[in-house]
Design the sequence.
């Protein structure tokens, strides 16, 4: 066998394992899907926010840096958030509360979206995005024990692989989709 045949074999085997995981662990797949679709929203919002920052006439570079930090710092603080999530006694209640708070943040952002894009506007949105991403990463850490409950021990490796692969794939697809949508929107405004 050549290398492409071996690669194709492993790809098919991986897909078969994912199908088996889907059939045996449907609740895990629902939970994982919620997390992955949330990541798509995060990436699309980040792309749109960066695009808005590049339209500023003043402090453009600083705005891009602030937005990038608002997206990166919550990831870097993940180990602290994971520790806090582990100490949380009522994970389901905390998960519900963080979801509601994130919803509130995005409602505020949608209300602010009607105003003109200024540096102050970008700062407020970046702050809300930072808080939302912190809560989102905390919520993800809160779901880890549910994964252990929903997935059998023999399927745990496949489940973790699915989450890892899905997260990377969804990040790439969402970034591509966001870029494509921005190009489409910009072209329709020029026409």
Sequence:
């Amino acid at each position: 066998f050549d290398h492409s045949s071996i690669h194709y074999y492993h790809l098919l085997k991986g897909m078969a394992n994912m199908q088996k995981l889907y059939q045996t662990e449907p609740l895990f797949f629902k939970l994982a899907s919620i997390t992955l679709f949330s990541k798509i929203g995060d990436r699309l919002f980040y792309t749109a926010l960066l695009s808005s920052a590049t339209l500023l006439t003043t402090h453009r570079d600083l705005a891009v840096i602030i937005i990038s930090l608002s997206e990166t710092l919550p990831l870097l603080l993940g180990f602290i958030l994971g520790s806090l999530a582990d100490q949380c006694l009522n994970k389901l209640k905390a998960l519900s509360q963080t979801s509601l708070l994130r919803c509130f943040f995005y409602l505020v952002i949608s209300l602010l979206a009607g105003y003109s894009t200024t540096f102050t506007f970008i700062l407020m949105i970046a702050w809300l995005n930072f808080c939302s991403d912190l809560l989102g990463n905390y919520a993800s850490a809160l779901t880890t024990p549910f994964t252990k409950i929903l997935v059998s021990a023999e399927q745990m490796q496949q489940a973790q692989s699915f989450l890892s692969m899905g997260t990377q794939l969804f990040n790439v697809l969402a970034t591509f989709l966001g870029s494509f949508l921005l190009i489409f929107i910009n072209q329709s405004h020029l026409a």
Remarks:
- The CA atoms of residues 48 and 181 lie 9 Å apart.
- The chain is about 85% helix and 0% strand.
- The radius of gyration is 20 Å.
